[in-house]
Amino acid sequence: MSDHIRIIEMGPRDGLQNEKTQISVEARIAFVEALVAAGLNTVEVGAFVSPKAIPQMASSDAVLRGVSHVRDAEFHVLVPNEKGYETARAAGAQVVSVFAAASEGFSRANINCSVAESIERFKPVLARAKADGVRVRGYISCVLGCPFDGEIKPKAVADLAVTLWDLGCYQISLGDTIGAGTPRKARQMLRAVGAELPVANLAMHFHDTYGQALANLYAGMEEGVRVIDSAAGGLGGCPYAPGATGNVATEDVVYMLEGMGVSTGVDMDRLLAATNEVAGLLGRPPVSRVASALNAKKQRVS
Ligand code: HMG
Ligand code: MG
Question: What's the CA-to-centroid distance between 112 and ligand 1, angstroms?
């Protein structure tokens, strides 16, 4: 397991989208810059969704434009439909992410359409992206359980993953949106998807609601998955997944990986500074266990 792991930083999107306090475009840009400076060179910076649905992600075009000067980094944005794609492209997007769900209940709550309708909405996005030379990542939500429909079968996840792959997504990010999974379930789900698609093209996007995310990531790494989505400080969650908390914290992932001898290229001090800055603006301490431990240690020393 000592080969390279790619971390895709979610803080500015999945993180901030579910925070009660909205922070300014300038602060969002500074957050992205600080994350890249900490060595997180792939960052999801915003979402081109309805600002009525997710006001926290309004002005994602200004954020994307505002970070365009940052070199040696790859910025991702969410797009639910062609309208979002157009706005994202006008702001310079090179990588976009479409997002589907493994359950009808979550699809309806999140994007107001069935799973099949969402695929129809993605088709023109993928066609235009192909013509424009834009890469498209595909998310699947609720891969380990749905807040509305309950249990999700690994086969349902695998079938949808194949659909997104066949449409042209270069990577499928498997979302435990409500953080309800446990390692055995995560392993079964990843095996089912890995039986259909190259494991090298899968990513794990695990929320940490029940404190299982690191264990689930470890199980997935044992299955050969090498891409991890995480959010600085463990920020956020999905507004349409009742009770769900943020993604696994980047600090916790980096600490675990470095402890296993897997080099991440992330400067923990700089990452912690970026997290603390945003936590200050949001008015709450980071939920990351590692960030809390390091902050407490700093206080003891000073
Ligand atoms: P809809 O109501 O079905 O769509 O919403 P519509 O086409 O009828 O449009 C309704 C209104 O939205 C119109 O505005 C459109 O112009 C506008 P109005 O006439 O009412 O003023 N609209 C848009 N505005 C900006 N950008 C767009 C866009 N499209 C339509 N792209 C829609 C469908 C998807 C837009 C809506 O339901 C929505 O925005 N939902 C938010 C979904 C969201 O962002 N969820 C959180 C992110 S997903 C997530 O967190 C999970 C993930 O992390 C993985 C995991 O953890 O599992 C990815
Ligand atoms: Mg998520």
Answer: 8
